[in-house]
Write a structure and sequence with these properties.
alpha/beta, Rossmann fold, 8-stranded mixed β-sheet, 8 helices, Carboxy-S-adenosyl-L-methionine synthase, methyltransferase
Length: 242
């Protein structure tokens, strides 16, 4: 059973960079529900989008699968025969827990969870690829190459679902949306100390892009339809169709 997120509740003398280690894996469901506005809606809709876009005898990829929420949502919705899901995460703690979650749910759509760097995984015969709050943790210079690999591995008509935290080019809007996000976290029981320490720990490992930057890059790679389908404050999700 997942624990309550109090990782940043006490003062920490030396705040290192945020890592998806055993301590984070233990409290991750609580952490993400209380930290990411609209997360449950995004997970539910990923399943609905997968139901629409999954093609028979194709592969579905959940890149940066963490504990498998998106994978499970897709398994519940996909009806096409011959599909398989490949979930990938580079955190051993996440992968071990994810496999337990996947094994506990019976489905006609098999799912294989592997421990690997998503930059090293081949994308082949894909109809759906999910990057659910994953791309923002890659080095900015590695992002386009990964997206190009995804595009090349997608079947025509396949979909990329890309959920991210966004930065905004208008300074006033950017600060307002950050403040609203912090209000959201306060409303979910996080203290000022927790908000401050978490922000300091994560700022060097998560470097978000703007919505126009995402749109331009995806369109330049070749995706023919790129849209934001969900946004709450400075978090959201896009789809890009090949």
């Amino acid at each position: 059973m997942a624990g309550h997120d109090n990782l940043f509740a006490a003062p920490i003398d030396k705040l290192g960079d945020f890592t998806f280690d055993e301590r984070v894996a233990e409290v991750f469901p609580d952490m993400i529900q209380r930290s990411v506005p609209g997360y449950s809606n995004i997970i539910s809709a990923i399943g609905m989008l997968a139901e629409r876009f999954a093609m028979p005898d194709s592969t579905i990829y959940d890149l940066g699968c963490s504990l498998g929420a998106a994978t499970l949502s897709m398994r519940r919705h996909i009806k096409q025969p011959g599909c398989k899901i490949i979930g990938v995460d580079n955190s051993r703690a996440m992968v071990e827990r994810c496999r337990l979650h996947i094994d506990a749910y019976r489905s006609d759509t098999p799912a294989d969870i592997i421990e690997a760097d998503i930059r090293d995984v081949e994308i082949h015969n894909a109809s759906v690829v999910v990057l659910n709050f994953t791309l923002q943790f890659l080095a900015p210079e590695d992002r386009r190459q990964l997206l190009e690999k995804i595009y090349a591995g997608l079947r025509p008509g396949g979909i990329l679902i890309l959920s991210e935290k966004y930065v905004f080019e208008n300074g006033q809007a950017h600060e307002l949306l950050i403040d609203l996000h912090h209000d959201f976290k306060r409303a979910n029981g996080y203290s000022e100390l927790e908000i401050s320490q978490k922000r300091s720990a994560i700022e060097h490992v998560m470097r978000p892009d703007s919505i126009p930057a995402h749109r331009e890059r995806l369109a330049d790679i070749g995706f023919r339809s790129v849209e934001v389908w969900f946004q709450c404050f400075n978090f959201g999700s896009m789809f890009a169709i090949k």
